[in-house]
Design brief:
single chain, alpha/beta, Undecaprenyl pyrophosphate synthetase, 6 strands
C-alpha cells in the first residue's frame, strides 16, 4: 500500500462477469458463479488484513429474479452454502455479517438463516461483511420515503424535520458509512441500481478483469489507485 493511513473504510463491489468468464472457458454460467464465491471469500480475508472496515457485495438484485429459474435456484443454493459454511469463520474472526435488501421473495428458510447469522455476529467489532440480497437502490429510496411518511402520519417526526442525516437513518444501510470506493469488475461503467444514495461521493474503479479473476492483489491495485485521488466532496482542492 502506498499510504496505510489512506485505506478506504468502506469498499463496495459489483461482482460482474461471472457468466462471461464461464463462457470463455466453455463452461456453464453456474461455474462462473461458483468461482465468484471463492473470490468473495478471498476478498473478505484480505480486507480484514488490510484494515478495511466495511465490504459490501452486490450479491443479488431485485432485477435478478428475471434470470432463468435454474440459475436463480443455484444462486440461492450458493447463498445457503455460504450461510452454512462461512458464518462460523466470520464469527471466529470477529467479523460482523449483515444483509441489506427486501426480504420477500427470498425463500423463507434463507430469510431465517440470514436472521440467525446476523444475530450470531451482531456483537463483533471487526470487519463488517455486507451482502446486498434482493436489493435495488430505487426500491430502497422508496421504502425509506414510505417509512418516513408513516412516521410523519404517526406524529413521530415532522415533515420539516427531514434532512439528509435523518433520511439516511431510514435506509437499509443505516449505521453503515457510505462507500469510499466502488469497484465494478469487467470494465462495465454503470452502477446498475446499486446504492444510489450512498455512492454520491464515492470514487469509482472499473477493472477489466471478470469477477472470478479478481483477487487480493487486484484489490490492492484498486486501493493504490484510490490513494492517488483527491476527494473534494464538491469543494475545491488544497491548491
Amino acid at each position: 500500500m502506498q499510504d496505510s493511513l489512506k485505506i478506504p473504510k468502506h469498499i463496495a463491489f459489483i461482482m460482474d462477469g461471472n457468466g462471461r468468464w464461464a463462457k470463455q472457458r466453455g463452461l456453464n454460467r453456474t461455474a462462473g458463479h461458483r468461482e465468484g464465491v471463492k473470490r468473495v471469500k478471498e476478498i473478505i480475508r484480505g480486507s480484514g488484513q488490510l484494515g478495511i472496515e466495511v465490504v459490501t457485495f452486490f450479491a443479488f438484485s431485485t432485477e435478478n429474479w428475471s434470470r432463468p429459474k435454474n440459475e436463480v435456484t443455484i444462486l440461492m443454493r450458493y447463498l445457503d452454502n455460504f450461510l452454512g459454511k462461512e458464518i462460523n469463520e466470520l464469527h471466529k474472526n470477529n467479523m460482523r455479517f449483515m444483509v441489506i435488501g427486501r426480504g420477500d421473495p427470498v425463500p423463507k428458510y434463507l430469510q431465517a438463516k440470514i436472521k440467525k447469522a446476523q444475530e450470531k455476529t451482531i456483537g463483533n467489532t471487526g470487519l463488517k461483511v455486507v451482502l446486498a440480497i434482493n436489493y435495488g437502490g430505487r426500491q430502497e429510496i422508496m421504502d425509506a420515503a414510505r417509512q418516513f411518511a408513516k412516521d410523519v402520519s404517526a406524529g413521530k417526526v415532522g415533515i420539516d424535520d427531514l434532512e439528509e442525516k435523518l433520511f439516511s437513518s431510514y435506509f437499509y444501510t443505516a449505521g453503515i458509512p457510505d462507500p469510499d470506493l466502488l469497484i465494478r469488475t469487467s470494465e462495465e461503467m454503470r452502477i446498475s441500481n446499486f446504492l444510489l444514495w450512498q455512492l454520491s461521493y464515492s470514487e469509482f474503479y472499473f477493472p477489466k478483469k471478470y469477477w472470478p479473476d479478481f483477487g487480493i492483489n487486484d484489490l490492492k491495485e484498486a486501493i493504490k489507485e484510490y490513494q492517488k485521488r483527491e476527494r473534494r466532496f464538491g469543494g475545491l482542492n488544497a491548491s
